[in-house]
Each structure stands twice: as C-alpha cells, then as structure tokens.
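Try it yourself: sequence plus L-homoserine, in.
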Amino acid sequence: MGFKIGLLGLGTVGTGVSEVFANPLGRHPLLQEMKIVKVGVRSLEKIRSLSLPPALLITDLEAIVHDPAIDIVVEVMGGLEPARSLILAAIAQGKHVVTANKAVIARHGAEIFAAATQAGVYVMIEAAVAGGIPVIQPLKESLGANRIHTLMGILNGTTNYILTQMQQSGAAFTDVLAEAQQLGYAEADPTADVDGLDAGDKIAILAALAFGGRIDLEQVHREGIRQVSVADINYARNLGFVIKLLAIAKLSPGTSTTADTSFPSQLEVRVHPTLVPLEHPLASVNDVFNALLIEADPLGQVMFLGPGAGAGPTASAVVADLINIAALLKTGLVANDPETPRIHPLLACSHEQYCTIAPMANLVTRFYARFLTKDHPGVIGKLGTVFGDHGVSLESVVQTGVKAGLAEIVVVTHHVQEGNFHHALSEIRSLAAIDSIPSMLRVL
Ligand code: HSE
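Structure, out:
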C-alpha cells in the first residue's frame, strides 16, 4: 500500500505522528496512501501508549534507514547524534527525510542539504521551527514575491512561559524555572532553552530561507534570560514595555543588496531578551505560545502565531511535510536517477553561499541599563557626560529611590551603536560613584 514510512523516535512528537496516522479520517486523503511500517526506539522496555502495532517497534535504527522498502524516514528522536548520521544514511539510501531536529539542521544543514541535492531527495523541516505554526512553507513558497527585510519572533515556548510567569506573579527566574521543570514545561537541563540556543537554531534556519544563504550558527549572537530580574520587568512595565526573548534576523541598515541582487550583503542575526513596547504585536504573545513577525516588500507585516511545541502541533507539521512528499512522489516530481533529477524548485534547498553576519558592535538599537550608584550629588550628570562623550544620546533617566544606601538609576537610550554603548559602560564602571550595573538590555 502506498508510501512506506520509517519513524525514528517514539517520544512526544513520534507518538503525536503515530496518533494522526492511526486516525486519518477527515484529514488529507493522501494520509491514507502512507503507512508507518517501522518505528525505531531506544528500548522496547519503556511503556508507551501505543496507537501502532507493537510488532513495528525495533531498536535497530540503522535497519530502518537501510530498509529498501522504506520511502520516507521521519527523524523525531532529537539530539545531534545518531540523528545526523541516520539522516545522512537515509539520504544516501535515496530516502526522503522529514525531521523536527532544529539542532541538527542549524549545525549540519549544509552537509545534509548538499547530500540531499546530490541524491535527488527532499529533506523537509516544517516541524523544526515553531512547532505547529506553518513558517517554513510560507518562507519557501507563499512569500516568494517579496523582499524580506525582517524576521522577528518569539521562538522558544519555555522562556516565553518563564518570562510571562515572572511578569504575572513577580516570582524570580530561578523559582519560576523550578516550577516549570516540575510541571514538565522546562527540561531537567534547561540550558538550550534558557540560554537562547534553541531560539538561535531556529532563527538561523529561518534566516537561511528568508535571505537565501547559509548561516554560520557560531556567528549568531545568542543571549538567554537568566539575567532578567523582576526589578527589570517592573521598570520595563512602568516605562511601557514587556521583556521578551526575541529572535531577530534582518538586513543591516543601509544594506540593500550586492551586485548579485538575490543575495543580501549583511545580516543581523541575534537572540536576546528585549524590551518590547506594549503596543507591539509580539508584546501580547504569552505563555508557551510562539510567534513570527515577518516584514516584507510589498506585503508589509504578517504575523504567524500558535503553539510552538507539543505532540499534536509538532505532529501537524511533520505530517504536512509527509503529505507534501507523498504529493511529489505521486506526481513524479522526484527522480532518484542523478542523470535526470526532477526536483521541485521551491521545496529543495539550493543555497551554497554563506550570508555575512554583521558584528554586534555595529548594531544600532536602543538600550535599557540599570545602575546602582552611591547617592551623591552629580552622579546622574556624570553618567550623562560619559554617555555623551561616546555619542550615546539618552531618551530617559529615572531614579526611583535609595535602597541599602544605593541609588537605583535606570536609563533608556535613543538609537545608538552597540559598540559605543559598551565603551560608555566600560568607562562608567570605573567611576567611583558606580557600585554595579546589574542589567543591560536591548529595546525594540
Ligand atoms: N524547547 C522548545 C521550546 C520546544 O521551549 O520552545 C521545541 O522546539
């Protein structure tokens, strides 16, 4: 019957995918032309709620990617290895691949897509970014008429949940994280989420599609939310902002395009906690929800919003990719013969160049900074002088009172160059009147 699928992994996402297949009525008819024929798991011991015959489960994952009867491999096991090697082995065997693995694609996408192009197969990644929200297909297909200049998103549900809870309950980061771990919203090792690495993988993948070139993940500035305090959340609220972990990819100001008009010369690609104006569309995206705002010409702004993780939403994206591949296989837009490859030009990846990522020191943005200072006359004047000497113009300066003998001063700048702002902060740190600078955040 139809096309045969080998599923690698039966965790949250794999279980969600098997449940969609177990119950195809009312969904796209192509689902009924596909069948999961093998499921690779680490151990047969673990008890699972199964919507698949137990006989399909095997622990030999290599056997799945080498099985000549299997047309499509779905990799939903996560982690870098053996996921990367299994994906490459499946491609080498002429199998199409659907993966939800953002970490592998962001780090090894160049190798994987080059192998796929050579083998004449598709590697589909809708589930790798923003879970159930369709963001990959719009960038590949629906927005093709546009010049995209900005992608801006909340791409990590765990950190959005933590920041929302801190905002609503006034609890500290460590307390909210511990509670989120107890509830199963945050991983036992929360590093990838709270340090901005997961969002960094996702914005790198989106930027490659939006701007038509590969992204070197090492050059993506990734800063997480560990240093965000309730004090900053409260100051931000009083100033008309909410703090969100934003993932941003945009053409650097002044960058139009190079002589090759299809390729941008410089991009900003960055993840960091950001003060977002309360009236901005991303400000009200709360809890575990994800959102992606795209600014493009001539479209203008479009925003995608929805569940960025979880069994059902991620399975929705995986199965959409499977349906796409089944449609291509049915219409013959696939030939595994390298002499006569027939590959859908919108669904295959053809990037070969790397985008140039602008250094953070060149970024032009607004900043928020909080200073603890001695409560002496002239301290605010001294701060203003140092900022002025470095070309940093201030939009507002607030001193709310004295705590434990120290004055707390909060500054918001106009748009300034990040390098200049850091030079000013270094000089301010050395002033005798300055006790500490507990926070420095970017402002949208
Ligand atoms: N850990 C991710 C998040 C979900 O918190 O958004 C999977 O990408």
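One thing you can check immediately is this: The chain has a mean pLDDT of 93.
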